[in-house]
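Re: your question from the hallway

Yes, I did run it. Sequences:
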Amino acid sequence: MLLIIPMMWVLLTMVFILLRVAPGDPVSAAVGGKLDPTVIAARRASLGLDRPLIVQYFEYLGQVIRLDFGKTLSDNRPVLDIIRDNGGATLTLTIGAFLFALVIGIPLGLIAGRRRDSIADVLIRLFGVITYAAPIFFVGLLIQMFVARPLGLPTSGIASPRTQFMVGSAPKTHILLFDAALSGDGNAFMDVLIHHLLPCLTLGLLVCGVFIRLVRVNILQTLQSDYVEAARARGIPENKVIRDHAFRNALVPVVTVIGLQAAMLLGGAVLTENTFNWPGLGTQLVHYIEALDYPAVQGLVTFFAAIVVVVSLAVDVINALIDPRVRYR
Amino acid sequence: MSAEPIVRARDIRIWYGTTRGPVKAVDGVSFSVGKAEILGLVGESGSGKSTLGRGLLGLLPDGAAMDGELTFEGVDLLAATPKQRFAYRGTHLGMIFQEPLTRLNPLMRISEHFSETLKTHEPSISKAEIERRSLEVLRVMGIPPSRFSSYPHEFSGGMRQRLMIALALVLRPAFVVADEPTTALDVLVEAQIIKILHDLRNSFDTSLLLITHNLGIIAEACDRVAVMYAGQIVEIGAVDKVFADPQHPYTRELLRSTISLSTTALHSIPGAPPDLVDPPTGCAFHPRCPDALAICAVTRPIAYARDGGAPRSGSTDVACWVASAKSGTVTLTPAEAAPLPREELADADEA
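Structure:
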């Protein structure tokens, strides 16, 4: 728990340094070459970018502690507004992707583990390696070409313009999927849902490879375990042995790794969003990195880091619920 | 001990498939266990004791094949379909393992272990009945009822072994295989567990096959003992008879190798147990046997009852040419009875 603070500090410092090390600065990235150098210098001074780095660094830390993420330099937008307006799309994308990964990864891992070295096992393992190793924009492109086109599924954006206009213009929750559901317009909800399908699948495939291998290895291990043999000796039927003894115990390490996958999921979301033109935090992050917009990038990265921390905390709680041995530590 | 045995095994063979060829882990074993009788099974590591115990319950891994005749209360289990055989597991045939620490599912409460076991075999059993019957066995095992809904990791090693015994006994199986149940436990707990197992026949009328490599446990807890070497039973009979006057050279050497407080020099049997992919011809023990005759290297000895004739249920039998010749059960020709030349002993040792 207490590790969160130093963890966040290291992260903030790294983001700060990396941005400053990158060539150029926000002002010249926006208007460089178009304005007189003296005007640029004046703008830099007005933004406080001419002060020593150490001063900027501590000012930045102070702002983060006060939860003040500031405004973007390039378009003078509060960073918290970006998170509010675009966070919802990323949230539903990652949750959808996570569900895909679970639904695809856990059953396949279970089958591969139960039928070790069979053809099914080999194919499933191959599938897991490929989906894990393939670059996400490439998978996204393949899916757009070979899945979206024949099925007529949308490949860009989170909703059709009509839905965007009807629902998106009056946000209640700032999560378009929920807003569409709350609007009572069934067509709009279906529209948003269908737009989620392929981006979620693409990102889900990336993570499901990890789940497949993890579940498979752990099932193999628990099937060899002493308590599984003892359960068989008591005459417990094989399907119950697998479900209640092998599978439940195999899930304990899987849950832990799922927490670690949150980081991978967010990283993948950045790429997926760009591939599918998704109006989430990932596209915003890329946009602001290109503009070298220090406060925007710092704010977004800090937010991503905070999400990962919260997820790993939640995983600890879930683990304690599943495994009684964790509860007493 | 009634006349009709609970379990009768005849010529049981269990082979494991390996890349080097089949491992003959159990190679023609015959024995029977009577009602409420405790048969000890003793032998070195790798002699096939545990394989035999698992084979009786049908718990062999993939790649193992079992043949022979195994009857339980008159029903031939090996001729039965896998489904029929499965129905015997737990309810009629129970098993207690070594390493009790890892035998309970760490995510399940003790109460859940019991209710799962009982519900599997008696689907209509009520919750109250589950609790009543579980607590009854637990009481016999000395586990207080307050611990019923604890998790396995909250118990000590000795308690967990008592839980395992209780879990096997709650179904009242007529026959239980206990595979080195005290190997992982300290001596005081060991004595406690052995006493519990020994008393089972009084409290539950259970027959027991007690697998161990500890001769002291056999002497203390068992009615009869079977000595196993290289997948075969070389001597079987009443514990007092076998231990007081061992007929087979291996039994004799094994008894000499035990350690007690009066031991001043360690005795061991020269050589190592044979490779079960390619066991020695004739008697499997002949390369290490100090008494070996010429016939021992050629022909596998036949088991005879000590008092002459074929082995009977409950008789004391030995499978050894030397012993049979000495007792006059068989007559060997002078060529067969010649001592085995020494160099062959050395050859076998090297191999």
